[in-house]
Amino acid sequence: MSSHSAPSFKNPVVRWVDSRLPVFSYMHAEYGTFPMPKNLNYFWNFGALAMVVLITMILTGIMLAMQYTAHTEHAFDSVERIMRDVNFGWLLRYIHMNGASMFFIVVYVHIFRGYYYGSYKQPRELLWILGVVILVLMMGTAFMGYVLPWGQMSFWGATVITNLFSAIPLVGENIVTWLWGGFSVDNPTLNRFFALHYLFPFLILGVVILHVVALHVTKSNNPDGIDVRGPQDTVPFHPYFTAKDSVGLGVFLLIFAFFVFFAPNYMGHPDNYIEANPLVTPAHIVPEWYFLPFYAILRSFTDDWWFFSWFLSWLMTAKLAGVLAMFGSLIVLAVLPWLDTSKVRSNRYRPIHKWLVIAVLIDFVILGWVGGKPAEEPYVSIAQWSTLFYFFAFIVLTPIIGWIERPRPLPASISEPVLKGGATTAKMEKS
């Protein structure tokens, strides 16, 4: 804030408040005159979109909680009552339900943008780690929220996922009992999941605030991945990026509205409209689509898999190996700043690593596809090879490519490619 002149507010009330609590000066400095790299593309919209969705989820969640009953005998019926009897309850639920999918879509794009343009590199390592923490908290929140409707997939998904902790040696069974609040998924489980599902979004909001503060300390990365050289490389956040974010927000809201009004159950599972029955197991238990890549990694570890039987079977069970691999897939993201040994940030100037990033994206999509398929061939083998490639790409190929790759020359400043492009355009027009 010290680099910006103190604003002079015309409104006397705003001026009076700001002289005693400089919140308006802070907002002016951080979201008004804050210098932004002038070459940011629309991929930089997704952080703002994630914040919009988070606030939407918190507001709709609070209103839904007023009508929801966290009891195994009434939860399913209370959701049906919200849909049928509560004024605009159907709209609140569809916004909240599809908002979870929209949240993961924008966050996944946001993470991939940071991965492609090297936003995890020095000095933004902590910023990146906080982003991974947000993703983990989102996954926990979404999992507990999926249990609340108390449909078939809610009950059996909770049973399968919580049972994973039993693979932990010595304390696993005790952890499962503690999670359940008893000896099976029942009313205590639903109660604590509802309480945590209500709490976690505010925890996410707190980490998001830390994420934004860290961003404003280290400043935004840019598609060229080079540092800002001076005022000629930047423009104020307002009105340039408020306008640009507004365009992205308008397009996003149209897509969001399409799913809410025309395909509200497209990304859900039909079995969750059947009330939970502990005596009837669904033919195919699957989590929500945004968990499928990690679910595929979990399921890929089987007793007959050659990789497990050769390297890990003497050390742990296949179930424990799958659990560790699932959590390990998130840990490798967190330590990516230290796995990547290249000094160049953006893949615009990294001809080899660029293709590795694209390959990892394709691999992640394949894992999501097989995660939604039955645990049978050929899907199990595809998941196993995709899992191996995922870890091999991050742990082995990423540092090796950083050592052997010869990046293309970087521009001297952010303005240079723009000015060169302008000069080229002017020559073409003259010719």
Written overview of the protein:
This protein is mainly alpha-helical and 431 residues long. The chain has 2 domains: 257 residues, Cytochrome Bc1 Complex, Chain C (Up-down Bundle), CATH 1.20.810; 139 residues, no CATH class. The chain contains 17 helices and 2 strands. A two-stranded antiparallel sheet has the order 1-2. Helix 5 packs antiparallel against helix 6, helix 5 packs across helix 10 and helix 11 packs across helix 13. 32% of the residues are buried. The C terminus is likely disordered.
Keywords:
mainly alpha, oxidoreductase activity, two-stranded antiparallel ribbon, 2 domains, iron, 2 strands, disordered C terminus, 431 residues, 1% strand, 17 helices, transmembrane, electron transport, Cytochrome Bc1 Complex, Chain C, Cytochrome_b_C_euk/bac
List the helices and strands and how they pair.
Layout: H1 12-20, H2 23-31, E1 35-37, H3 46-65, H4 75-84, H5 89-116, H6 125-147, H7 152-163, H8 172-180, H9 187-218, E2 234-236, H10 237-262, H11 292-299, H12 306-311, H13 318-334, H14 336-339, H15 353-371, H16 379-404, H17 415-430
Antiparallel strand pairs: 1-2
Helix pairs in contact: 3-5, 3-9, 4-5, 5-6, 5-10, 6-7, 6-9, 6-13, 11-13, 11-15, 15-16
